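[job 0412] stage=fold_complex status=start
inputs:
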Amino acid sequence: MTRGARLRVDPIACDGRGLCAEVVPELITLDAWGFPIVSGEDIPRGLWAEANEAIRLCPLLALRLDRSRQGETVSRKRADP
Amino acid sequence: MNTLDSQVRPAGGAGGMRAGHLPRLLPERFWGGSASLEEHLARHGRPPARGRDGWFREQLIAEVGRAGLTGRGGARFPTVTKLRSVAAGRDIPVVIANGTEGEPASAKDKVLLAREPHLVLDGAVLAAYMVGARQAILVVHDAVREMVDCAAAERRGARSDPIRIKVMTGADRFVGGEASALVNWVGHGIPRPTATPPHVFERGLAGRPTLVQNVETLAHLALIARHGAQWFRSLGTPEEPGSMLVTLIGAVHRPGVYEIEIGVPVAEVLGFAGGPAGPLGALLIGGYFGTWADPGAVASLPFSVAGLRPVGGSPGAGLIAALPADACGLAETARVARYLAAESAGQCGPCVFGLDSIAGELEALAAGRPFGEARLRRWMGQVDGRGACRHPDGAVRMIRSALSVFGAEVNQHARGWCRGTRRAGVLPVPSWEAA
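[job 0412] stage=fold_complex status=done
writing structure:
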């Protein structure tokens, strides 16, 4: 993997089952209501297996890899309503 | 390269549209109903004749770019960027004019549609021409539906437009005006936002590139097409040119909708409504996603994005709500927070559960019950930026500004003291939400 990737959660699909946070607590924590807060940092080399496992285990397919460049992910913040 | 000025100048009757003068959008008179097509044409002249070839279309888009027109729905996004993106799309695009105005405190779009529906329709038709759309859909608030229907029928009778105009009533929801929610409402009858990207200007209604523009933006566009960019820039600041509609409510002498020059001081904006009707406690600027501000601190600031940045504010959709000194800002904030929580589209967990928890905490604070500020702030951090749309972000922005502007009162509330002596709420929320 030459280019970094991050975990990304689809907030509409996510139902807060919480499996992901058990598999990779290093990258995913749960908020006060049990919904995952996903780290915006690139997935470190040592956590690739766990990150992929979390994606595979999500019963709602709400978790995925985001390989877009950083600029594209922050663009959501600037999108028009 | 004098582009539009030579060709587009209306034949006459545009005496009221001198450079540097207000009003542009609203009629000079303050009585009467909608302007008829005849009255509209007498005041503004005909829109520029549409050429058959592409260059004229390009030229109009370029003129909108030179004018520096930005979206008047609240986000102030450059209109030309959307026009270009939609025009370059691979499929035949659609234009949706956004007149839903779901924000209970705002009235400017309703007033514009009620008074000058043809200016908005001109803009929608011109925008459709610019991007190559064959259909413009006007989604309006229920309160003005009939007037817009009449105007559209009048145009059909006069065969004035080369494209199809469809009028719809918007969903009666706060989120209904968000671009993706609006597209879903028009397409499927469900006013739900979807995650971006893709933006609706890339893939919107039925997968087509969709130009969603606020109705006031389209009215400005209709005037730019007639009078050119230079005329448009004769008001406003170089960075934020033009005029804008504002809704002034609360403790002002004549609450209502006014047209102002962008960049005039906040105190001057309030002056349009006759100024404050008594001592003010705070101003809510921009809307329910806006910011609370100390009236003294912002009175001399320009009413513009750049001018309000120092206090973390923005003109947003043009609302200023003046809170009288005898009203409790924390109680107002709690009421609006509860309303915004109830108006969540119900899709994203942090928005559904987070805003509900936050509203509950604010209600405790407003009522003088035990409340945890650290917990409230932690929750806001966990909600901000975590929805598919920006509903939670906007709510949190408003609440954070309340905690800072009413910071002293937070402590007083904890000790059972509140400055509010009136019970009636200042900021309107629909009664079915306020239970």
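[job 0412] summary: The radius of gyration of chain A is 13 Å.
[job 0412] exit 0
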